[in-house]
Amino acid sequence: MVTKAGIWKQRLGYGVADFACNLIWQMITLYLMFFYTDVMGLQVLAVSALLLVTRVVDGVADAIMGIIIDKTRTRWGKSRPYFLFGAIPFGILGILTFYVPDIGPVGKLIYAYITYMGLSLAYTMVNIPMASILPSLTRDGQERTVLATTRIIFSFIGATAVSVLTMPLVRMLGNGSQAHGFFWTMVIFSFVGMMLFFVTFKNVEEKVKLRQEKVTVAQTFSALKGNTPWYIFAANIIFMFGGMFFHQGSLIYYFTYYVNRPDLIGLVAGMGSLIPIIGTFVTPMLARRMYKRNLFQIASAVTVTGMLIMLISGTNIFGLIVGAVISALGNGVRTAIYFSMQADPVDYGEWKSGISAAGFISSLNGFIGKVAMALAGAVSGVFLTWGNYAPNQTQSASGLFAIQLNYLIIPLILTVISMIIMYFYRLDHIFPQIRNDIQERNQAQDASEGENTSNVHGNKDILPQSV
Question: Are 52 and 106 in contact, with CB atoms under 8 Å apart?
Fold first, then answer.
């Protein structure tokens, strides 16, 4: 019997993994490009190429990781072991990525490729299992929403910690050197992240067992055949997360150079990661009263409204703060419901094909997200180059416009496109029947397996006598 304490133990264990992930992810999203251009001193276009190449390779690794998960058989399950084995590489490479070696411009660029690619692969090793394990934790749609909400709440807490603490820690630990400050800040974040993944490994359990013993690559791909809900969901990832990555990655540039208030970076970044918790808390309640797709659309519209207010406000601090708050509220709901939704096309694929490929489909979602991140980083770098961006200097009008494009205009457009795509998502209204059909199929298989086992045992009792 599953106790309430046991349920919350799993929820919290699942949630702290995303706290750990965001100690690194938020650093990458908010500060990595700035670290490379303004601290390590790499050229903007070189950084754009680095981000594009590394993230595409990382995306391919996501797909491979998904296949590995689907083929994994251990006493701990399929996804869970990777929280244990991936924690230490994840922490060590997080530290090395934010270290500035004294080896010249070319050496630094090579070092950046090696360490960031290594960190990306280590991140894949612990992050893809977070998505693939959700269908194995429970079949209950509402509990999946609660788990996803718990995960997102912890992700926002982790992101808030990074947003609020990073620059003060950089100043305090660096003693005037941003290079030293970023390094020691990452030592702290990475160590905490490693410890939390050990907590996750200890507290989650794969209760829903998959039916097939072995899954071939061809069978894995068959789970995607005709999976229209996943096609729509996957297309949305490009635009939803592309807009987020443009917006988050340009925040430090926007408030440093466009608004000329670098002191507000921690405040605005903190609001962008803390305020969404409010929206995330109400997501399970709202999801009980409306389709997930509709909730996603409403939340996206709130996000668009907030960005429009920021765009109209220009450099007006009050308007920027109000817009940031509204946008963050929308982001909280749509991010939580997104992570709840991503397990549903997995069940649709199993219902339609008989193949459960949670690891592979989750890894494809991760791959698409990495492509979106790669394109956002590369294109934003191209715009900065086009605008003649110069690190640590007063920017020209074209440079300021490029920063505004990256921070507000492009994210706003991409969010609207995301809403248009999700209009065609139709899984919600048939999902309860899908879940019931899968449950009945599994119960029938259990009964059949039990009968076969009983017959086998009966034969074993007779054999010694006949021999």
Answer: no
Contact 167, 265 (CB under 8 A): yes
Q: Report the SS3 class of residue 68.
A: helix
Topology given in CATH for the domain delimited by 9-204+214-436 = Growth Hormone; Chain: A; (1.20.1250)
| Confidence grade of residue 451 (pLDDT, cut at 50, 70, 90) | low
**Would the pTM of this model clear 0.85, i.e. be above it?**
no
- The answer to whether the beta carbons of residues 23 and 185 sit under 8 Å apart is no
What are the tokens at 390?
A: 């110069």
Angle at 189 between CA 186 and CA 193, to 5 degrees: 130
Q: What is the pLDDT of residues 80-134, one digit of tens each?
A: 899 999 999 999 999 999 999 989 999 999 999 999 999 989 998 998 888 778 7
pLDDT in tens, 227-241: 788 888 889 999 999
pLDDT band at 356 (very low <50, low <70, confident <90, very high): low
Give the whole-angstrom CA distance, residue 332 versus residue 273: 8
125 vs 194: CA distance, rounded Å? 13
Tokens describing residue 38: 């303004």
The rounded distance, in Å, linking the Cα atoms of 258 and 52 is 25
First to last CA, the chain: 43
How far apart CA 332 and CA 352 sit, in angstroms, is: 32
CB atoms within 10 A of CB 381: 27
| CB of 422 closer than 8 Å to CB of 236 | yes
What pLDDT score does 465 carry? 30
Work out the burial of residue 209: count CB atoms within 10 Å of its CB; fewer than 13 is exposed, 13-18 middle, 19 or more buried. Answer: exposed
Find out whether 95 and 397 touch, Cβ atoms under 8 Å.
Answer: no
Tokens 């009983």 belong to: 454
Which is higher by pLDDT, 431 or 100?
Answer: 100
- Which residue, 367, 280, 369, 376, is CA-closest to 48? 376
Which helix (H) or strand (E) segment holds residue 238: the answer is: helix 228-249
Distance CA 228, CA 232 (A): 6
**The pLDDT value given to residue 301:** 95
Measured distance CA(205)–CA(137) in Å, rounded: 7
The answer for 314, left when phi > 0, alpha when psi is -120 to 50, beta otherwise, is left
With a CB cutoff of 8 Å and minimum separation 6, the contacts of 15 are: 147, 150, 151, 153, 154
Give CA separation, 353 vs 60, 218, 347, 427, in Å: 24, 12, 10, 16
pLDDT tens for 130-161 read 877 877 787 776 787 788 778 878 887 888 88
